[in-house]
Amino acid sequence: MSSDQEPVKTICPYCGVGCGIQVQPGDEPGDVQFMPWGDAPVNEGRICIKGGAATEVVDHEDRLTDPLLRDDNGEFREATWEEAYEYIVDELERIREDYGPDAMGFFASSKVMNEENYLLQKLARRYGTNNVDNCTRMCHASTVWALRTSLGAGAMTNSMRDLREECDLFWIQGANPGEQHPIANSQYFRQAVLEGATVIQVDPHANKTTRSFQIDDTDRHQHLQLNPGTDIPLLNIVLKTILEHHADHPDDGWIDEEFIAERTEGFDHLKATLADFDKEAAAEECGVPLEAIELAAEKYATADNAAIFTGMGMSQHACGVDNVQNEINLALITGNLGRAGTGVNPLRGQNNVQGTCDVGAMPNVLPGYQLVDDDEARESVEDVWGFEIPDEPGLTNVEISYEAGDSVKGLYVMGENPVMSEPDANSVADRLGDLEFMVVQDIFMTETAEFADVILPATTWAERGGTVTNTDRRVQRMRGVGKVHENTKHDREILTEVGMRLFDEGFDFDDPEEIFEELRQVCPSYHGMTYDLLGEEGLHWPCYEPGDEGDPFLYEDEFETESGLGHIEGVEHTPPAETPDDEYPLILTTARLEEHYNTGTMSTRSPTLNRQTPENFVDVHPEDAERYGIEDGEYVRLRSRRGEITLEAHVTEATKEGVVWTTPHFAAASANKLTNHVLDERAKIPEYKAAAAEIDVDIEPVDRAAGDD
Ligand code: SF4
């Protein structure tokens, strides 16, 4: 590698917006610099703090550079790749022989490219289990479930570009694009608002999204600061307000009767659900004035094109599927689907979480969301793969973790960190310690890798090529500058080697394009894509045949449900599993920061990002601070029924009285030591967004340099 090498065009490794960036190799391996990509299709050269700092981790001193095996004393020692592969294959074969294939779990990764996730889920199925999942379980499993069953596809119905151009009203609920999807927010949504669109934000926390839309003195920004876990009653107020107005003023068109009649089913169920619904009592429960919610309902119903944006504030609840279903109800009764500038749009977190689901790294679906228990679909994939696929859905990743040491004896983890990312993290760590065998392939030592028997050093995002799929279904190519550390391997190299050693066939791919060529054979919505056709612009799925341009918005003519109709279904309020009581009188809710990312594996090692926020903190409302005697900046102990963390209190009106707000990014004081593992019963997503908590003050002084826990 030398400095006269051309920069390569690739995609930012952090969030799902899919910004294009360039990586300029330097004189030495690892000497890589960020460069803007001026005409990148999504971001047109703009970049947020994370994208600009992304190259900082490529040659970080903490990189894993050689395979590690745990020795008889429980310590890690360096090993050869040959030793590591032999050990892995022996253990995989032993576990299958002793306990059957469902005793293994496989964790795919949304940080990893489509080709690699495709290989991992194929490996799991060839091994004989559907126990394969990815971190969408923790972020948008409920959204995917609701969108797939009620509309057809578990993805954004529209694209950022058509929303910027055509959307008149942005309804942003439980999402914080100002911080989590900064370029989507600044370049698309805020731009539309500057040009006249309205924004309704529904969120318990006042955040950068709130501030980004406080423009001039217009009344085109409304923030409904509801109590955590009251999204269903709030949306039911909106729905009932629209129904009531339509009953009195049918000519105002708040409801789209023609759309409901021709393109939906279930409207009567919604009306029956809301018949006795008490708006005043519900507003009280939400902690938002009824008139404010009614005003927001009027704005949504009277906009020409209204689009809903939904985030983890909606999905990460035990009623996550119902939360998103109620957003779908709102869009369907007002006819805000199937055209530009409308829709129900989940803003996906990690840069390839959409693609990881698309390629079948989930326990109930094969590539292209074909159900594993649909005989015809399964057989069509079997025809290409040449082996039988188990026909029962497998365990989700949270279920796998909870079965660790019981029915699950072994775990294959690619680029995930469940000890940090799953709720009730202390008990996850305990159970992973009970496994008979765990392999982790990653770029850094993680809290999860500490429990592994073998650790495989992988390459970073900047070193290899492949494809990723962004939040609006755009499949884009990533290109690499080559390996920084000689003895590391690309994830796909590891998986092809393990696959060939186990099965002798089906995994002998030389490069990512060969893998993509097989993927497109079994994934109908990617069938029309090739590396050449993806080019630099990428393509939105569905793209069924070569030459298809891909759809910027879905469902123009019909929904992709069995009946072809959009499914309306009234939902009733389910309070969070834990509500405040005498012992734990506060509601704890969690969210991410702009300058950090998920479990912090990369972002806390990035000097630029870590300088902004080097440790965790908790937002406490001034009234609560006064009641507890907390000074701004003081360290407090925050605890729930599952654990405790020590962190700095920020006294601020950003949070509501009675609600404490913190983040999951920092290992020493991760919110996930406190969060509740109760699951949505259909989507199996945990309820990260609401738990009962208590604060202790007057604790031991904290040594900042030594960490806080
Ligand atoms: Fe990367 Fe997302 Fe920032 Fe774009 S908005 S630069 S994809 S983190």
Shape: globular
CATH level-3 fold name of the largest domain: Rossmann fold
Give the amount of beta strand, in percent.
Answer: 15-25%
What distance separates the N and C termini? 43 Å
Structural category: alpha/beta
Total DSSP E strands: 28
- The name of the CATH architecture of the largest domain is 3-Layer(aba) Sandwich
Q: State the low-pLDDT regions, or none.
A: 705-709
What is the spatial order of strands in the main beta sheet?
Answer: 5-4-18-17-16-6-7
What number of domains?
A: 3
Please give the CATH class of the largest domain: Alpha Beta
Summarize the structure.
The protein is α/β, with parallel strands linked by helices and 709 residues long. The chain folds into three domains: 68-138 and 351-540, 3-Layer(aba) Sandwich (Rossmann fold); 141-346, Dimethylsulfoxide Reductase, domain 2 (3-Layer(aba) Sandwich), CATH 3.40.228.10; 586-697, Beta Barrel (Barwin-like endoglucanases), CATH 2.40.40.20. The strands form seven sheets. Strands 5-4-18-17-16-6-7 form a seven-stranded mixed sheet.
Tell me about this structure.
The chain has 709 residues and is of the alpha/beta class. The protein folds into 3 domains: 68-138 and 351-540, Rossmann fold, CATH 3.40.50; 141-346, Dimethylsulfoxide Reductase, domain 2; 586-697, Barwin-like endoglucanases. It is built from 26 helices and 28 strands. The strands form 7 sheets. A 7-stranded mixed β-sheet has the order 5-4-18-17-16-6-7. A 6-stranded mixed β-sheet has the order 24-26-25-28-23-27. Strand 25 (635-640) and strand 26 (643-651) form a beta hairpin. It is globular. The protein starts with 7 loop residues before the first strand and ends in a 13-residue tail after the last strand. The relative contact order is 0.16. The model is unreliable at 705-709 (pLDDT under 50). The structure holds iron/sulfur cluster (SF4). Iron/sulfur cluster (SF4) is lined by residues 12, 14-15, 17-19, 43, 47-48, 50-51, 181-183. InterPro entries: Asp_de-COase-like_dom_sf, Formate_Dh-H_N, Formate_DH_asu, MoPterin_dinucl-bd_dom, Mopterin_OxRdtase, Mopterin_OxRdtase_4Fe-4S_dom, Mopterin_OxRdtase_prok_CS, MopterinOxRdtase_cofactor_BS. GO terms for molecular function: 4 iron, 4 sulfur cluster binding; formate dehydrogenase (NAD+) activity; metal ion binding; molybdopterin cofactor binding; NADH dehydrogenase activity. Belongs to the prokaryotic molybdopterin-containing oxidoreductase family. This is Formate dehydrogenase subunit alpha. Keywords: 4Fe-4S, Iron, Iron-sulfur, Metal-binding, Oxidoreductase.
